[in-house]
Amino acid sequence: MKKIVLKIEGMSCSACSNGLEKYLNKQDGISSASVNLVSASALIEYDDKLKIEDLNRFVSEAGFTSLGEYKVEKEERSNKNKILLIVFAVLIIILMYVSMSHMIGLVEIPFLSIHNHPMNYAICLFILTIPFLIYGFDIFKSGYKNLIHKTPNMDTLVTLGVACSFIYSFYNLIMVLLGHNENVGNLYFESSATIIFFIKLGRFIDKKAKEKTNSAVVGLVQITPESALIKTKDGEKEVTIDEVKKGDILICKPGSRFAVDGTITKGETHIDESFITGESKLIKKGINDKVIAGSINIDGYVEYSAEKIGKNSTVSEMVKLVLEAVNTKAKISILADKICGYFVPSIILISGLTFLGYLILSYPFNESLTRFVSVLVVACPCALGLATPLACVISEGVCAKKGILIKSSEVLETASKIDTIVFDKTGTLTYGKLKISKIHNFSKYKDKEIIQIVGSIENNSSHPIALAFTNAIKEEKMEFLDVNNFKNISGVGISAKIKNKEYYIGNNKIFKKFNSENNYSNIEDELSKDENSIVYVIENNKVIAIIGVKDIVRLNAKKVINKLQDLNINVIMLSGDNEKTANIIAKNIGIKTVISNVLPKEKTAVIRDLISKNKNVMMVGDGINDAPALESATIGVSISSATDIAASSSSVILMNDNLERIVDLINISKKTFRIIKENLFWAFIYNILMIPIAIGIFKPFNLTLNPMLASISMTISSLCVVFNSLRLKNVK
Questions:
Q1: Is 424 in the active site?
Q2: What is the pLDDT of residues 632-661, one digit of tens each?
Q3: Greater pLDDT, 138 or 72
Q4: What is the CATH number of domain 430-553?
Q5: pLDDT value at 189 more than 50
Q6: Distance (Å, rounded) from C-alpha 316 to C-alpha 242?
Q7: Where are the domains positioned within the chain?
Q8: Under CATH, which number does the domain 2-77 receive?
C-alpha cells in the first residue's frame, strides 16, 4: 500500500470534505481516504495498481480539483484578495446607500431617487450587483457542481439563495422598465450582493486565521536554508540544496543554519535545535555527532558530511508526519461529519417548506422569498464542520513546536482519557547510558585527572563501562593521554602504563591478583546499594580511587512522576532488572508500582493485561526496541533521537528526552477537547436559534432576519469557532 497527501482546491465547508471523502472511499484500489477541510488536503492510502493521475481524476469526478501532492511552501504574501475585498467594500457601501438611503432618512441622490426616478434606481442597483455576481462566480460554480454530484454544500445554499433573489429582482426590473413602477419595491439586488460580499469577507478572515493554524508546519519549512556551503578543492562554494549530494563535506559557520542532516567531521560547537526538538537549551556537539537541517550553529566553525537530503531529512519527515496527522480524524470528528452529511439537504428541505408554507398562508411572494433565502443563508454547516478539525490542527502544530510529533488526531482525543502510564526503565526513566555517579578519591590527583587517566586507558577497551569514561573526557574537553602496554585481564579488568606508571582498573577481584585484602568493602557496599558498578583504580599497587558507574535516572523524572500522579494517573515502571534493583530506582523517583524481571518479549503481555482491565494505557519506551509493547498500548510514546522518526512504530514521538513533554501532551489534549466541545456547543446552539428566527417563528415578537443580516450572522458564526480554536496557540 502507498500513502499520499493531496492538496485539494474548491472545498468551502464540511459538506464538501465529507462528500469528497465518501466518494474517494468508494473507489476500487483506495483502502482509506480522509479529507481535512482546514488544510484543504486528502490523505489517501491506495494500492499499486493506481497512479496519482487516477487519484486526481477521482477528485475531479467528485467536483473538486487536485493540485497534486501536498507541499508546504514558504510563505509568499499576496495582496490581490485584500485589494479585491477593499474594492468590493466600497461598492457595497455605494449599493447600500443607493438602495436604503430613503429608508433611514439620508439624503437621496436626486437622479437615483426611488420615488422620482424608479427606472434609474432599478438600473443602478442591477449594474452595481453584476460585479458581485462575477466576484462570487467561484461560489456559484462550487455550489452547482456539488449539487450535480449530489453532495450539496454551503456554496449550494448560497447559490440557491442568491440565484432566487437575483432572478426575482431581475423579473421586477423588467416590469419597472415596462412601466410598472410599483414593482420597484420588490427589488432585492442588494441582498444578492451583500450575501456574496459577507461570504467573501468571512472566507478572507477565515483563510488568514487558518494560515495561522499551519504556522508550525510552514515554520519548519522556512528554517531550512535554500543554499549550502560546500567544501571543494578550490575552497568554499555556495550551492543550492538541490545540488548537495550524500557524502559531500559541507561547512557551517557561527550564526548559520545547517543545510542538511549529517555528521560533524571537523570542529565543535554549541547548537540550537529548539524549533525541531522543542528544547531551548544549547547542545554541545563535536566530531561524529549528528546535526539536523535547520538547527543553528551558535559559536563554532564545523564541517559535516551530508547524509539525509530533501525528502529524507528530519524536517521533511516531521512535515510529512504532521500533514498525515491532520488528515486523520478523532472519533468526535467522525460523529460531527455524519451530522454535517445530513445538514445541507435538511436545510434545503426546510427552506423549501418555509417558502411553500408562507405562500399557503397567503403571504406576499416577496415575503415568502425573503424567508426562503434567509433560511438558506443563515444555516452554517461551516461552524459545525470546523469545530473539531481546526482545533486538532492547531494543537498538532503546538505539539510539533514542543517536539511532540503525533501520528493521528485520535491520539489528541485519547490522551485526555489516559489513566495508566507504563514507563520502560532503561533509556526512558534513565538515560540508558552508563555515567560516572561518584568518585572516592584517595590520591593527590583532582577528580578530573583521575577521569583522564582512567578514560585514556578505557579508550582501548570495548567494555560498556569504558564509554562512561571516554564520554566524560570528551564532555570536559580533555585530551587522551598516551597509553602503553595495554592488557585485558579476563573477568577482572584492564592494565596499562602511562608515563612509566603502572595502572590496574577493574572490579574487586583485582585484589586477588595482588594477594591482598579489600579494605574498601564499606565503600563498595555503599555504592552497590545505590546501584553502581564498582571500578577500582590502582596506581603502582596502591588504590587511588573507587568510582561508581551507573545508568543515571533522568534529572526531571521525579518531577514528571509527581505531576502525573497529581493528574490521578497510575504510574507503573516496567524493568528487566531484578526486584531489588528496580524497587530502589522506583522509590527514588516516587513510583509505587513496579513490574520487574520482565523480558522484552513479555512487555506486550503486561500492556495487554492492563488494557483487558479497561485501563487506558500509555506506554513510554524506546521507539524501536519496545515496538510490540508500544503498538499494543492505547497510546505508544517513544523517546527517540530526533533522527529516528521514520523508524519509530509508536503513535507519538518525543523529539527530545524531556519527559515533561508527556505531561504537556496530556494537558494539550484536555484543553483541545474542551475547546472542541465549546465549538460544537456554539455551532449547534447557533443553528438551533438562528434557523427558527430566519423561518419567522419569532415574527410576533418583531424578531426576524433578512438575507443580509443572515449572511452576516452566518459569517460571525464561523469566525467564532475559528477564533475560539486559535486560543489553543497560547497553550503553555
A1: yes
A2: 899 988 886 544 554 456 788 888 778 899
A3: 138
A4: 3.40.1110.10
A5: yes
A6: 14
A7: 2-77, 225-312, 403-429+555-669, 430-553
A8: 3.30.70.100
Q: Contact at 8 Å (CB) between 210 and 392?
A: no
| Mean pLDDT along residues 412-427 | 88
> What does the alpha-carbon distance between residue 124 and residue 134 come to, in Å, rounded to a whole number?
17
What global pTM score does this model have?
0.72
Separation CA 177–CA 610 (nearest Å): 80
User: Pairing state of beta strands 593-595 and 290-291?
Assistant: unpaired
Among 375, 346, 370, CA closest to 164: 370
Summary count for the chain: helices (H), strands (E): 24, 26
Highest mean pLDDT: which range of 151-165, 278-292, 388-402, 692-706: 692-706
Strand, helix or coil at 440? strand
In the chain, what's the furthest Cα-to-Cα distance? Answer: 127
Query: Is 292 strand, coil or helix?
Result: coil
In sequence order, which residues have a C-beta less than 8 Å from that of residue 144 and are 6 or more positions away? 156, 159
Cα 302 from Cα 250, distance rounded (Å): 9
Question: C-alpha dihedral over 476, 482, 486, 491, to 10 degrees?
Answer: -10
pLDDT tier, 484 (very low <50, low <70, confident <90, very high otherwise): very high
Alpha carbon dihedral 677, 389, 411, 431, in 10-degree steps, equals -110
User: What's the rounded Cα separation, in Å, for the pair 417 and 427?
Assistant: 26
Superfamily of domain 403-429+555-669: HAD superfamily/HAD-like (3.40.50.1000)
Which CATH code is given to the segment(s) 225-312?
2.70.150.10
Three-state secondary structure string covering 632-663: HCCEEEEECCCCCCCCCCCCEEECCCCCHHHH
Amino acid in the structure at residue 377: V
Whole-number Å distance between alpha carbons of 375 and 706: 9
pLDDT in the model for residue 312: 74
The confidence score (pLDDT) of residue 643 equals 46
Least confident span in 50-59, 204-213, 424-433, 543-552: 204-213
What length does the chain have? 732
pLDDT in tens, 441-461: 999 999 999 999 999 999 988
Q: Please give the pLDDT value at position 101.
A: 81
pLDDT of res. 409: 82
Secondary structure, 3-state, 462-515 = CCHHHHHHHHHHHHCCCCCCCCEEEEEECCCEEEEEECCEEEEEECCCHHHHCC
Lowest mean pLDDT among 462-466, 517-521, 590-594, 628-632: 462-466
707-726 and 381-401 helices, crossing angle to 10°: 20
Among 511, 521, 535, 559, smallest CA distance to 438 is for: 535
Strands 617-621 and 635-639: parallel
pLDDT for the residue numbered 686: 87
Left, alpha or beta for 69 (phi > 0: left; psi -120 to 50: alpha)? beta
Which residue among 155, 248, 337, 424 is the active-site one? 424
Indicate the pLDDT class of residue 220, thresholds 50, 70 and 90.
low
